[in-house]
Design goal:
6% of the residues are buried. The radius of gyration is 27 Å and the shape is rod-shaped. A hairpin with a 2-residue loop joins strand 3 and strand 4. The protein is of the alpha+beta class. It has a two-stranded antiparallel sheet. Strands 3-4 form a two-stranded antiparallel ribbon. It contains two helices and four strands. It has one domain. The structure holds zinc ion (2 copies). One zinc ion (ZN) binds next to strand 4 and helix 1. One zinc ion (ZN) binds next to loops.
């Protein structure tokens, strides 16, 4: 997500004429992770913008939720040998 922050440093005090609402410093974009809110380098993951750590976390939970089909190999061998 993009979070805009007011970072106007008081343009008038620096001898500049602050143009108020459209002051560039009042809308400084900060790119934040959709999940943990940490600001930094983000990656698109599904429809979210996540930081690397959250993507790793997402991947880990996805693989752990994945259900494998249990396949009993020993049973299959026994059947082949018996026929
Ligand atoms: Zn300003
Ligand atoms: Zn994150």
């Amino acid at each position: 997500m993009i979070r805009y922050e007011d970072e106007c440093v008081g343009c008038t005090s620096m001898g500049l004429r602050c143009i108020g609402r459209s002051c560039r410093n009042r809308h400084v974009p900060h790119y934040c992770c959709d999940k943990c809110g940490v600001e930094g380098k983000l990656f698109h993951f599904n429809d979210d913008e996540l930081c690397a750590e959250c993507i790793i976390e997402e991947l880990n939970t996805e693989t752990s939720e994945y259900e494998y089909d249990e396949y009993d190999v020993s049973e299959e061998f026994a059947r082949v040998e018996g026929s």
